[in-house]
Write a structure and sequence with these properties.
The protein has 352 residues and is of the alpha/beta class. It is built from 11 helices and 16 strands. The protein has a single domain, classed as Rossmann fold (3-Layer(aba) Sandwich). Strands 10-6-9-3-2-11-12-1-16-15 form a 10-stranded mixed sheet. Strands 4-5 form a two-stranded antiparallel ribbon. Strand 15 and strand 16 form a beta hairpin. 37% of the residues are buried. GO terms for molecular function: DNA binding; site-specific DNA-methyltransferase (cytosine-N4-specific) activity. Its EC number is 2.1.1.113.
């Protein structure tokens, strides 16, 4: 099995290199409006943003920033297949503008934008992202009533393009082999994730310097990997219009999916060239870790006196449901660069 991973240096408001109905899943984390590190980017896209901030008009700046993101959402509606899923990782912003402190609800504005374009909202996820500061309060400290809640979570907003779910041919191998374990389903499809930090691999130790990491606002690999497994099948194509350092493409490679990325900053492509070298080992370790965790689950379940009804077809383990029997992990055996991206060769993961 071979997958292709293309990277385009360009503006995601115009995804002209991507054909209509060309992708089955979108996984992305856009720049967050009203977070100061993104002010210059949004001002470059629309000078009205900078004018509004200089005038102390936070509402106008918020609206102008989201107007630029709306142009990307227009493109997603075009390139995503009917029934395809879009997962948008975003956080709200807290900020004082002209002396007035408030929250700017990015998740609510994006929810409104997608629904107005014919997407159906699906249940979303909150994932806990602890703040770096040891202080757990904002405002007047321990005195009421002017202290404020500290935001330590982000949203993964989930949308379906249209009202109908995707359909597959009966007993499609690429769907059944991409199944997840019963206990993974229970954990992944929970509406609150508290376990994503560092479970697979974060950016520490990669060829990502601090400045580039800050500008990429990279999220943990566990998030796009988990979303690829939850909302796509082997051989599907995953799009990230805000590619950054390529975390979504890394996840797609490890998950046996094709990927497409758009990114304004050419330097991030060079960073990814270094990161991609780790993919064969990373994909192998992810598959083995998932299988090891499942075997621990099986042992604990048996210790509790509970039987499992089925045997896996490809691995020496029992499973809870009939749908899990066909699970077959893929590992990347090689990655070959070409002008627009990379070819990744996959083999079934073998466990000795």
């Amino acid at each position: 099995m071979e997958t292709t991973h293309r990277v385009y240096v360009g503006d995601a408001r115009d995804l002209s290199a991507v054909a209509d109905d060309a992708v089955e899943l979108v996984v992305t984390s856009p720049p967050y409006p009203m977070i100061e590190m993104w002010d210059d980017l949004f001002t470059d896209l629309d000078p009205a943003v900078g004018d509004a901030l200089a005038a102390g008009d936070g509402r106008a700046a918020f609206a102008a920033m989201h107007a630029q993101l709306d142009r990307v959402w227009d493109e997603l509606e075009r390139v995503l297949v009917d029934g395809g899923i879009a997962c948008i990782n975003v956080g709200d912003a807290t900020r004082s503008v002209d002396g007035s402190f408030r929250v700017y609800p990015n998740h609510a504005r994006i929810l409104e934008a997608f629904e107005s374009r014919g997407f159906d909202p699906l249940p979303d996820v909150l994932w806990r992202k602890p703040a770096n500061s040891a202080a757990k309060f904002m405002g007047s400290g321990t005195l009421p009533p002017n202290a404020y809640v500290t935001l330590e979570h982000e949203y993964v907003l989930v949308f379906r393009n249209g009202v109908d779910s995707r359909e597959f041919e009966p007993r499609a191998d690429r769907r059944y082999e991409a199944a997840f374990f019963w206990e993974e389903r229970n954990r992944w499809f929970s509406d609150v994730w508290t376990d994503v930090r560092g479970e697979l691999q974060d950016l520490s130790g990669d060829a990502v310097d601090d400045d580039l990491r800050d500008r990429s606002a990279a999220y943990p690999l566990e998030i796009p990997y988990r979303l690829c497994c939850m909302y796509s099948a082997y051989g599907d194509t995953v799009l990230d219009p805000f590619w950054g350092t390529g975390t979504t493409s890394l996840a797609a490679m490890c998950a046996g999916r094709h990927s497409i990325g758009y990114e304004l900053e050419p330097a991030f492509r060079e960073v990814f060239d270094d990161r991609v070298a780790s993919v064969p080992d990373l994909s192998r370790s992810i598959g083995r870790a998932r299988l090891d965790r499942h075997r621990e689950f099986v042992a604990d379940r048996r210790a509790d006196g509970k039987d499992l009804s089925y045997e896996a077809d490809h691995y020496d383990t029992d499973v809870v449901t009939k749908m899990e029997r066909g699970i077959r992990f893929r590992e990347v055996s090689s990655v070959v660069p070409f002008e627009e991206g990379y070819w990744a060769e996959h083999e079934p993961l073998s466990i000795e």
